[in-house]
Design brief:
Shape: globular
Largest sheet: 5 strands, mixed
CATH architecture: Sandwich
Distance between the termini: 55 Å
CATH class: Mainly Beta
Mean pLDDT: 84
Structural class: alpha+beta
Number of domains: 1
Strand content: 35-45%
Radius of gyration: 16 Å
Order of helices and strands: HEEEEEEEEHEEEE
Oligomer: single chain
Strand order of the largest sheet: 3-10-7-4-5
Number of strands: 12
Low-confidence stretches: 1-27
Helix content: 10-25%
Length: about 160
């Protein structure tokens, strides 16, 4: 009986995760806020630092302006003492994903729009912003967004 419940729970989680991953995709790998960039093409580099400070968790900078059609390489550094992640998405997608993360705090991302880093580690995301609008980047590890770890991307 326990095995059946576990299998059913895993199947439900798998379906909800797949549905969440597809949210906002229009076709192929393009999403409401753009598409994975091509690392072989030129990109503007934007440094983003993640850290804890005075009881808050922050991204520096927490607001980024980008031109529509621009490819950006986010050079990400975790200067904190805790694991942090950055997830690029619409605000609605990130808030929904945060609910899933609260249920599954050890969920790891293998998505081109997300990167999780251990303390003192670095990583990068290459992304092409194909549509104008305001988009979100957040750390969705439970409690981190609530502690201030989010920012805004404005694409004009």
């Amino acid at each position: 009986m326990k095995t059946r419940i576990l299998v059913a729970a895993l199947a439900a989680l798998s379906l909800s995760t797949a549905a969440l991953a597809d949210a906002g995709h229009s076709s192929g790998d393009e999403r409401a806020y753009g598409e994975p960039g091509d690392p072989k093409k030129p990109a503007r580099t934007i440094q983003i630092t993640m850290r804890e400070s005075d009881g808050k968790m922050v991204f520096i900078p927490n607001k980024i302006d980008i031109r529509k059609g621009e490819q950006v390489k986010f050079a990400i550094r975790n200067n904190g003492e805790l694991d942090h992640e950055i997830v690029l998405a619409t605000l609605d997608e990130n808030l929904k994903h945060a609910v899933e993360m609260a249920k599954n705090p050890d969920m790891e991302h293998d998505d081109p729009n997300a990167k999780r880093l251990a303390p003192k580690k670095t990583g990068e995301i290459v992304w092409k912003f194909t549509k104008a609008g305001e988009f979100d980047f957040s750390c969705l590890i439970p409690g981190h967004r609530e502690a201030g770890m989010f920012g805004k991307i404005v694409v004009k």
